[in-house]
Amino acid sequence: MSNTNTFYKAFSSEQYKLSKNREIFGVLLIPIVIILAVNIYIIYDVLKSGIDVAEGTLNPWKMTLGRIIFMFFYLLYPILVSLFVHACCDVEYRNNNYKILFTIPVSKTKIFFSKTVFILITIIFSILLSYVFFLLSGYLLSILFPELGFQNYDFREVIFYTFLKFAITLSAISMVQLTLSLIFKNFIYPIGISMFMLMFSLIVYQKDFSDFLIYTGGYKSYINIMNENITFERLDYCNIAAIFIFTAINFFLFTKKKSI
Question: Is residue 260's pLDDT more than 50?
Answer without folding.
Answer: no
